[in-house]
Amino acid sequence: MRGGVRVAMLINGYPPRLGGAEQQVAAMSAWLHRQGVQVTVVTRRMPGVARFEVVDGVPVHRLPVPGPKPVASLSYTLAAMRLLRRLRPDILHAHELFSTATSALAAKPLVRAPVVATAHRSGADGDVQRLRRKLFGRTRIAALRRQVDAFVCISREIEAELAGIGIAPARCHHIPNAVDTEHFKPVPDGGKPELRARLGLPDQLTAIFTGRLAPEKRVEQLLAIWPAVRAKCPEARLLILGSGPQQPALERMAGAGVSFLGRIADVAPYLRAADVFILPSAAEGLSVALLEAMASGLAVLVTDVGGGRDVVRPADNGWLVPPEDPPALQAAVLRLLGDAALRASLGSRARQDMERAHALPVIGGQLVALYDRLLNGG
């Protein structure tokens, strides 16, 4: 890609808002900036956050979104069109298939730039199924089919869902999420006790969940099995990092050996301090939390949904269990907590896979190659 190419990233939320898509776009935007790509982020303004700032070298424009949801979406689109007409990007990259994609398509004839769209979630509450249920959903899907130049598919499941609404395979590009393997890395041998002490954690066998405390994550299923886990493994502790609508209810149902740490801006030290990462979700796109745990050299236990099955090879670099199956989840947790050699083997292979296939330079290079093909008529 020639130097100085201008890319506008359109996303509904951006740090300090925490979420997998937000973290992913922030990390990739910073990496692209370091490669000489002129990235600009166009997002919605959160209360108490500046309208404009530069984050890690990347200009971030936060647009006002007043009023109820339909009005807010229209306000975002109109403001984005005005801004994009002034910025004149070479690439419009929309994250999620809703107001950001609508805004990119509306701006496309004004700036004469190709549109890339990334769906970040799959399943019943994913981008495609939610779009089907929305007002004028069929019309919006038809517009995506006609006008989006390339779709980035972070998982094979999303790729299949896009095919189900008529998106041609040639326009779908499998580019999974990336992880910063320099920041998320294993603790040195023998370093966990000291790290746990610095974090104020007991030096005990530790499982960890990181993510949004929302219904689709099924954290309540993990809490429900934890007393039985503790009955057979009394020293086991469970750390819950994150916030969300379910937090008060989950905290009320938590028993002994469970600690809620709330929203943590940097989860990397806590991942390094843990022994097992658990993600019992009912649906996912490709969990950034999962990739961070694997890069940290953790044994990961996840449900067989979304992109998890793309990256986790059972009993090789992680452990898969069926979704909505607490007995299977409980058995797998006990298996991993009870076998240090297995945990070490799974974590080592997980780390190797992240370095090989999901490091920022690897995935960033694939995205740059896609942009280059679009700009050169490929």
CATH topology of the largest domain: Rossmann fold
Given as residue ranges, the uncertain stretches (5+ residues, pLDDT < 50) are none
Instruction: Tell me the span between the first and last alpha carbons.
Output: 13 Å
Cα-atom radius of gyration: 21 Å
Please provide a written account of the structure:
With 378 residues, the chain is α/β, with parallel strands linked by helices. The chain has 2 domains: 6-178 and 359-375, Glycogen Phosphorylase B (Rossmann fold, 3-Layer(aba) Sandwich); 192-357, 3-Layer(aba) Sandwich (Rossmann fold), CATH 3.40.50. Helix content is 44%, strand content 17%. It has 15 helices and 14 strands. The protein has helices spanning 20-34, 69-87, 99-111, 127-133, 137-147, 156-164, 192-199, 219-232, 247-253, 268-273, 288-295, 308-311, 326-337, 340-357, 360-375, and strands spanning 6-10, 38-44, 52-55, 58-63, 91-95, 115-119, 150-153, 172-174, 206-210, 237-241, 258-262, 276-279, 299-303, 319-321. An 8-stranded mixed β-sheet has the order 3-4-2-1-5-6-7-8, with helices on both faces. A 6-stranded parallel β-sheet has the order 11-10-9-12-13-14, sandwiched between helices. Strand 7, helix 6 and strand 8 (172-174) form a beta-alpha-beta unit. The longest helix is centred in the N-terminal third of the chain and has 19 residues, at 69-87. The chain is globular, with a radius of gyration of 21 Å. The chain starts with 5 loop residues before the first strand and ends with a helix. 46% of the residues are buried. The mean pLDDT is 95.
